[in-house]
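ok trying again, last paste got cut off:
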Amino acid sequence: MLEPAVEDAVRAWLADPAVAEVDKNEIRSLQLAGDDRELTDRFYRDLEFGTGGMRGVIGAGRNRMNLYTVGAAAQGLANYISKQGPEAVRSGVAVAYDSRRLSDVFARRTACVLAGNGIPAYLFEGLRPVPELSFAVRQLGCTAGVVITASHNPPEYNGFKAYWSDGGQVVRPHDQAIMEEVRRVGDFGAVRSMEPEAARAAGMLRMLGREMDEAFLEQVQASCLDPEACRRQGERLTIVFTGLHGTGSTLAPEALRRRGFRRVIEVPEQAAADGDFPTVKTPNPEDPAALAMGVALAQREGADLVIGTDPDADRMGVAVRRPGGRFEHLTGNRIGALLVYYICDQLARRGRLPANAVMLTTIVSGDLMKAIARSYGAEVVEVLTGFKWIAEKIGQYEREGSAGRPTKEYIFGCEESYGYLPVPFARDKDAITSTAMIVEAAAFAAEQGRTLGDLLDDLFRRYGYHEEGARSLTLPGKEGAEAIRALMDSLRHQPPTSFAGLAVRTIGDVKSGEIRDAGTRAVVARYDLPPSDVLLYTLEDGSKVIARPSGTEPKIKFYILVREDGRDLEAAKQRAARKISALSEEIGRRAERFCPAGSR
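nice, full thing came through this time. structure:
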């Protein structure tokens, strides 16, 4: 039986003249089927517009991605921009979209709502990567940007990501203010829109195409650190690339060719855009299975490495050939370590490593990349999870400095979830430039008769063998959200004293900003970070267990970070694997009390 609040929300949807009959009928069919569970999930809340936008399952209902919720999000953004003054309105908004279901429809809806509010919309003529949208916002001097994407989520999802004038996803104070404007929209009938033809005729809808692609690709090529090595190895290295049915195929192969790499082979079955992602369970390059077709092709072709990007091309995964022909799928932390090593080493060789160099990463990312950066004299600054915080720091250093002279010189940004930004002409994760840069690093290794795998082993021997594990529990719906809250409350207020026999040394609570001694509970340090629902346990041997509810998916994630002496790599790998397995099992046992059903 439906709760009264849900019944009221369903009744309002069916009575709303702004909702088309076809979308009302979708709800009526659920009523006829007596599917109260599905109705509750669709109407127990409005689809939340969070600090970076919104993401949800496609379908009819207030807690779904559809023309109405997208229109309301666009209207709220338009209302906020209008309050920033005439110049903000004139500067307009760039809009891009990926290959997901209805992405093009939602993008046009967004552009037409902006136009209907007197704000020029710059709409890409076809699907384009996230980093190009970020670049376009900066290139055009736009007030804001929007990408219609759900990143690497399953096919039933889509989303609305909002960006500000610096090209980064919106942060304080804009994020909270935009959220409030979206909430104030209220009825879908309050959304103002223009028809596409009328918007074009009025000059309020302007199309972006190859000219912007060229400007972006020129910047990608300008980031090349060793053109000669790329030229020499470009005829020898063989790279398999897959865009996983998304936007990566629009620019990444061309970026590699411009870098000098001639032997680039796309996985043909995954080159075409397709929001059903028919060849993968999920289009996420974090998952080795997503690159399986690429690896199979690489083995047939004798390729050196495999690269895959997610649907909006902000994440990049890599598999490298190892002895015997097998391919190793690298973690995001290890890709980040290779990239920061290559960048620091090349800059140092050329006398271009700034004295005030800074690498930006997140509190949940691995420690290997941090150790590498510090060894070259670069400062490491940790931020909250989410690349918008990296973008915010870059902007902060620019604002604190003078023109062309930031207080800290950004050299690299990375988060463990396969997001990297080698150079800051874009201000979000950039899988296009990262693809070009990791292949350039492979060329650097090939110059020495080595591979990326060999370079990684060298780093382990020098800085220690770093391994990470993760445990995610997916808990959809209202019950799942309550279970996640209860689990975090327990971990916060009745914290474990040990994990897998390893005593907890300190407990960091980013929500309160305090780092406490686990024994005395005294505050020993504080985070210089905005409050966030993250708990970080440091164990007696230096291992870390981090708990963080996802901000975009119905799940809670646990990160496990360990380090072992790397002089004997095989022994180190075995010790690390045993430790991660024990820690993961204990996390699972603790979580089961709060979410025994529906978790995975």
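cool. The radius of gyration is 24 Å. The longest helix spans residues 569-592.
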